[in-house]
Design goal:
This protein has ten helices and no strands. It has 203 residues and is an all-alpha fold.
């Protein structure tokens, strides 16, 4: 076999991996394409981006609709956000911990918004159960991870960590946007959250 034919065979034949791993790989490849093209994205485009044949997609998904639903579930799942929060070093100062948490959660919400918006689910409506966790449970899991980040500073907090976590999570969701001012960075948002709106020199 010539080198050209070997290369062609390599491109056409996807590396062997368990069906569940291949399913995850396809979902992770498809999500940014869905965010860009919406439901109009083709399975052929997804397959090319994943470096696999289009038929491989239909060995792990019944049809395109099942793939789209799996991508929605992955985008809305709290798993990735919780892992990010759990990986934050709790020996850091509280402000740094919360800035990292804000960055991770803003990325999570942007991902949800991009996928849901591109598929016409405006308003951020949660489409039901996701991996056994609906909106309420997903929120509870993220808040619990935030509580763990706050726990080392429990004695210094004015309110219980559970309440502070709920306030912080809510702030991230409702952060107001203004046309004439740039969005707050995670560090700026945390500074206002921890120290209020008054500057240090205000009486």
């Amino acid at each position: 076999m010539t080198a050209a034919k070997e290369n062609q065979t390599t491109r056409r034949r996807a590396p062997s991996m368990p069906p569940e791993r291949r399913r995850e790989m396809i979902i992770h490849t498809a999500i940014p394409l869905i965010a860009e093209y919406g439901a109009a994205v083709t399975t052929a485009k997804i397959a090319r981006a994943a470096g696999i044949g289009e038929g491989t997609i239909f060995r792990v998904f019944a049809d395109k609709d099942e793939l789209l639903q799996a991508c929605i579930a992955e985008a809305l799942s709290p798993e990735h956000a919780v892992r990010e929060l759990d990986s934050i070093d709790t020996s850091q100062p509280l402000a740094e911990r919360l800035a990292e948490a804000a960055d991770a959660l803003q990325a999570h919400m942007a991902r949800m918004g991009a996928v849901m918006g591109s598929l016409g689910h405006g308003g951020g409506k949660h489409p039901g159960t996701v991996r056994g966790a609906g909106r309420t449970e997903s929120t509870a899991r993220i808040r619990a991870a935030l509580v763990d980040l706050l726990e080392p500073d429990r004695a210094a907090l004015r309110r219980p960590p559970e309440q502070i976590a709920a306030l912080f999570f809510g702030l991230l969701f409702i952060q107001p946007r203004t046309e004439d001012e740039p969005d707050l960075t995670p560090q700026e948002l945390v500074e206002v959250f921890l120290h209020g709106a008054l500057s240090g020199g205000a009486e």
